[in-house]
Design brief:
By secondary structure, the chain is an alpha+beta fold. It has five helices and three strands. Strand 2 and strand 3 form a beta hairpin. It is elongated.
């Protein structure tokens, strides 16, 4: 749970998740949407992968990322349980 919350705490990572909500994207497409270095984007994508928020698939020389909603669903259920009276 800690890595999940850490991954969600960064605005760049949250924006990447919003982008992936619309469609799967390659690492290059994600990097093009930001004014930061590609190694920084790789770091953000790695953190999202470690938190199981995204899934990556290597296709030739490209890596395509997709949103994994399972982890978010579990987080929402956990928040609901702790806030339920």
């Amino acid at each position: 749970m800690n890595i999940l919350l850490k991954a969600l705490s960064d605005p760049t990572r949250r924006e990447i998740l919003r982008m992936l909500r619309k469609r799967d994207l390659t690492a290059g497409e994600i990097a093009d949407a930001f004014d930061i270095s590609k190694p920084s984007i790789s770091h953000h994508l790695d953190m999202l992968r470690k938190a199981n928020l995204v899934v990556s698939v290597k296709e030739g020389q490209y890596i395509t990322y997709s949103l994994n909603t399972t982890e978010l669903d579990e987080l929402i259920q956990w928040i609901y349980k702790i806030t339920k009276k």
